[in-house]
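call fold(seq) -> tokens
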Amino acid sequence: MGFFRRFFKKESQNAKAEPSFEESEEEILEVLKKQYVVDVEENVESIESILEGEEEVIIPGEVQPAPDYDESNAALEDVLEDEEMESFSEKNVVTHESIEEMGGHLDTARIIGDLPEEVSFD
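ret:
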């Protein structure tokens, strides 16, 4: 019996302590207005600090087309001509005489897979 009395007694106390919807709405609105003012001030301060900083000078870069591939005097009629076209497959090719001049960047590479040693198909 004492349990039920305490249970119902607390429930009636909680019911009295709860504010009405309008009161809680007003309280929440006041808190939100204060928080909004603080957020706006912080945003304005951060934007001002960004704008007060030194401006970066952007140096425009020069665009240089690859001279081996560029045909600057081409016209629309050149496309329709039945001439043999120049092959660009061998332009700007780097040929290495030996592997040593390329460096040893693969010396520390690990072999990942099933076979940790070379396979010979002789």
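Residues 20-51 form one domain.
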